[in-house]
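Page 42, continued from yesterday. The earlier attempt failed because a stray header line got pasted into the input along with the sequence. Redoing it now with the clean sequence only.
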Amino acid sequence: VQLVESGGGLVQPGGSLRLSCAASGYPFDDYAMSWVRQAPGKGREWVGSIYSDGSNTYYADSVKGRFTISRDNAKNTLYLQMNSLKSEDTAVYYCVRGYTDYDYWGQGTQVTVSS
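This time it went through. Structure tokens are written below.
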């Protein structure tokens, strides 16, 4: 199993960024997927999750209305569209397999929101 995130970077407050996670080594469309983030000096925070077929998504209150999770099962890829970014969104973002119990993690991608 391999999960590889991409798309992180430096963005100004109010800006947007889209993260991608390329999955391989397992039947991608059999598993729910989630995004988890870790800000500097803080613990890990669940961002949101998506069902295996993409029919349902769930978000943390801190990102609801600003972030959107989607997936393309034909491309074995998970996405996180982040809009109206705030400084407090600065973190390493991880793609993880699972809905509540996570058994595989990507290496993470850094998102920095700063002017």
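Notes: The mean pLDDT is 97.
Reminder to self: strip header lines before submitting.
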